[in-house]
Amino acid sequence: MNVLEIQGLTKKFGDFLAVDNMNLKVREGEIFGFLGANGAGKSTTINMISSLLRITKGEIRLLGKDIAKHNRFAKMNIGIVPQDLAIYEEMTAYENVHFFAGLYGLRGAELKERTFEALEFVGLAERAKEYPKNFSGGMKRRLNIACAIAHKPKLIIMDEPTVGIDPQSRNYILNSVKKLNQMGCTIIYTSHYMEEVEEICTRIAIVDHGKIIAEGTKEQLKSTITDTKDIRIGYKSDQPVNLKPIRLIQGVERVMAQDQMLLIHSKAEVNNLNAIIQQLIQDEVEIRSLDEQAPNLETVFLTLTGRNLRD
Amino acid sequence: MNILQIARKELLIHLRDKRTFIFMIAFPLVLILILGTALTNAFSSNLAVGDMNLLYKDNIRNGQLASSWGQFVQASQQEGITFTKAAADEDGLKTVQDDQYTAYAELSDDGIKYYGSPKNAIENNIIQGMLTVYADKFNLAAAAFKADPSPSSVANITVASGSFGNFIQETSLNKDKQPGSIDYYAISMTTMIAFYACLPASALIQNERTRRTAIRLGASPVSKIEIFTGKVLATTIVNFLCIAIVVLFSRLAFKAEWGSHYISIALVLLTEVVLAVSFGLACSYLFNGGAARAFIFIVIQVISFVGGAYFPIDITSGVVHQISQLSPLRWANQGLTQIIYSDQASAAIPVIVLNVGLSAALLIVSGLYMRKREGL
Ligand SMILES: Nc1ncnc2c1ncn2[C@@H]1O[C@H](COP(=O)(O)OP(=O)(O)OP(=O)(O)O)[C@@H](O)[C@H]1O
Ligand SMILES: [Mg+2]
Fold first, then answer.
1. Over the stretch A120-164, which tens digit does the pLDDT of each residue have?
2. Which residue has a Cα nearest atom 6 of ligand 1?
3. What is the pTM of this model?
4. Which residues of chain A have a CB within 8 Å of the CB of B5?
5. I need a surface site. Which of A30, A193, B72, B256 has the fewest CB within 10 A?
6. Within chain B, which residues score under 50 in pLDDT?
7. Which residue puts its alpha carbon closest to atom 8 of ligand 1?
8. What whole-number distance in Å separates Cα of residue B85 and Cα of residue B83?
9. CA quadruple A103, A109, A115, A117: dihedral positive or negative?
């Protein structure tokens, strides 16, 4: 079953087309990765799903129901973790979760129980009585998640939930996402960190200029790019390597030098390894290591959008 | 009822903000104390009323009228006004101009001609007021001397209502029941600080936006109107509580006069807070971000000044006068003064009606803007 179906979704800000005729289906039980560079239209799409922005054109169906017609139903079944922290610093962790969960019709003992559950889930139960101003960045992020899940939504949308936190908190959050998923939640996950998306997402959509330009599992996405390969050459040289002659070698599309490492993006069908090595030897570059890979998600993204995921 | 959830949260946040209390309670109390003690002399009312001597010429032929005049003179004399009957050839106007009498009146069956000394405005006003009631009671037409050079002292004694026996007592007794400086500032600071409720109100929605919690509120199944109502409710309650504390404290600690019509006073102040909150909200929708705050600050300063918050303003004509009539503080202050010093609980009604009407208009404007806007 599809938890979310988006059809012909369009959002205009004045004349600016932020989301352009988007189509998308998210199935029950998925952790769906939403990848896109800055300004691609991820947050705008998410905000329309969660009824924060009006839909210019198109339709969003949640659990089979049009959210414009069944707005309350849709809102009850969605939990949103906003890109920026959205908590009250003047209220304790407990009060924050309690307040937001209370907006979903929970009352009394049940509300209390759910509040504790959510805090427990993100590992903040012990600090429930504390104010977020004493929390680390990672703890605030976790509280941000707790506020979104206490009402047990079917679909949880996380807009960059791990931005700017330490690796430990990030792992904690990634594990929480997996656990939520195992508990039956469908999750839409946006991130600028390719490794995260590779690690947890079952399916991925790549958004660019408000459109979905590719969609599928990691393997499917990588296999769309069968015609290129990445060559990495570790070297030692005091002089900067002259990249120009390498660029001229047949099949080479892009060359970058970084930390004594050459990254060469090349057509797959051309065997140009010999030519590249010869050139380096001629330039008196000492080769330390050599490695040829099929493209990873980062390459897929770069090839499809012409942009880096992070600027 | 999600309104209550919203209001509860809002109360929690307000009540934890110490600034609210310092600003809304300590600040006005300190001002009442400072201004009230520093400006004591400016308000000293016992010195103000001096001797009241009325010279009158009696041309009354009607017997009934003559006897009522007799009663009036008697009643008034008990309240400290001296009546002197003029000799037939005495020039009354000149005696007043020479400062021998406070005022001069000519009585006839047709009415009263009155001339008061411009030098003794207060005494003059009291006598004139009493004569007005007398004239009204007996349907006398009243006129003033055309010959009088100073327009401010010419009285057109026109119709007022009420029994003169009562009025005589009140008018003359009122000279003792005048606000002293502490009393004055207790009222004016309270109404001023009540209006400051528009500042937190202007930040109600903006705060949710800057905190990003507007996203969560917008995504939750709570309507904008519930959020809006809950917030207005909570802000009104908190600010009204602060005001109530200021009133009680000024009464108990500073012995400020607040009269005995508590309900009328509470309603005037409550509706003023509602008006301030509505005004603040409307501003936050009409202006962007910092502009709303700046605008509100200017408005508060102007209406405080012309409303007589810092010192009594007695301008009776011109632009400043007209602006002062638009100050919600002015009508609140006047209303409260009447409730307290004229013992008229009903003086609250026009103030309440005005406050509630304007609030409703401002809330409707805010509501329309709110609906038009995407998100919160
Ligand atoms: N309220 C708005 N008014 C006008 N333009 C907007 C508005 N919100 C977003 N945009 C524009 O729409 C485009 C998409 O923005 P959006 O926030 O959806 O991007 P994003 O993919 O979430 O980017 P990021 O990774 O930086 O969060 C951007 O160009 C942005 O400037
Ligand atoms: Mg975004």
1. 999 999 999 999 999 999 999 999 999 999 999 999 999 999 888
2. A13
3. 0.76
4. 99, 102-103
5. A193
6. 45-48, 141-176
7. A44
8. 7
9. negative
